[in-house]
Specification:
There is one protein chain. By secondary structure, the protein is α/β, with parallel strands linked by helices. It has one domain: P-loop containing nucleotide triphosphate hydrolases (Rossmann fold). 37% of the residues lie in helices and 25% in strands. The strands form 2 sheets. The protein has a 6-stranded mixed sheet with strand order 6-7-8-3-9-10, sandwiched between helices. The protein starts with a strand and ends in a 10-residue tail after the last helix. The protein binds adenosine-5'-diphosphate and magnesium ion (MG).
Length: 258
């Protein structure tokens, strides 16, 4: 299968701090990439770069049908818009429009941004809400839903844009533990249907079961990459081992953390 995401030499600084220092990886069509790594290592900035929510300082990025060389001068707004339209993001939380019903949250992008016919967008939204187990919740408002249900609406909303690649930024980390499973199940089903996904998560069991590729990011670079068995099962890099040891047993070695 061809690659739907190719990232090479991705660099990004915020003021004087270089946050991404030459990130590279590829994502095959229909595959799931899980990105793990410590807080502040640049995971969100990688995803935001793929969705053009941040403009990289350098790097050649391909998402879907669009390639931009960010080192070759400022891309035009039209070019950035075309690049952004290749992917859709599912955020950690608090991203639904509170004053719109669940259905309107899902149809807003297709109707307003993509200018698709309302009837078609609504029919699609109902199908997607059924797919994430929320067929009966279309007329509710976000505040009437649990956090897990809100995240599933967030996934339906991303899918409604028909992206080539779906980007998830810690989609379960703001949820009560008992609500995590429903969201991960929806994501697992999506993967089984062949969606191309890049997922930042600390859910190691999900990574082991669903990921085709795991990237360990630290200090703004991909320190280790491979299959879940390689990166999680037998990590080669000391930094990967140390990170996994800490998240798998948060009480272990906290004295030497730093
Ligand atoms: N808009 C921003 N302005 C300044 N610093 C930022 C901004 N976004 C992220 N950073 C910094 O970049 C680093 C990486 O952030 P982030 O990509 O969010 O990491 P992660 O998602 O791995 O926790 C952090 O030190 C963070 O404070
Ligand atoms: Mg983050």
């Amino acid at each position: 299968m061809s690659d739907l995401v190719v990232v090479d030499g991705l660099r990004k600084s915020f003021r004087d701090t270089e946050v991404l220092r030459g990130v590279r990886f590829r994502v095959a069509e229909g595959s799931v990439t899980v990105i793990i790594g410590p807080s502040g290592s640049g995971k969100t900035t990688v995803l935001r770069s793929l969705n053009a929510l941040e403009t990289p300082d350098a790097g050649v990025l391909t998402v879907g049908d669009v390639t931009i060389d960010f080192g070759a001068g400022r891309p035009s707004r039209a070019e950035l818009a075309r690049f952004r339209a290749q992917s859709a993001m599912v955020f950690q939380s608090h991203n639904l429009f509170p004053h719109l019903t669940v259905l309107r949250n899902v149809t807003e992008g297709p109707i307003v941004v993509q200018r698709r016919p309302a009837a078609e967008a609504q029919a699609q939204a109902r199908e997607l809400l059924a797919q994430v187990g929320l067929a009966d919740h279309a007329e509710r408002y976000p505040y009437q839903l649990s956090g897990g249900q809100q995240q599933r609406v967030g996934i339906a909303r991303a899918l409604a844009l028909r992206p080539k690649v779906i980007l998830f930024d810690e989609p379960t980390s703001a949820l009560d533990p008992e609500l995590v499973g429903d969201v991960l199940t929806v994501m697992k089903d999506l993967a089984a249907q062949g969606a191309t996904m890049v997922v930042v998560t600390h859910e190691i069991a999900f990574a082991r079961q669903v990921a085709d590729q795991v990237l360990f990011v630290d200090g703004g670079t991909v320190v280790e990459a491979g299959t879940p068995d390689e990166v999680i099962g037998s990590p080669k890099q000391p930094r990967t081992r140390e990170f996994l040891r800490r998240i798998l047993d948060p009480l272990a070695g906290s004295a030497e953390a730093g």
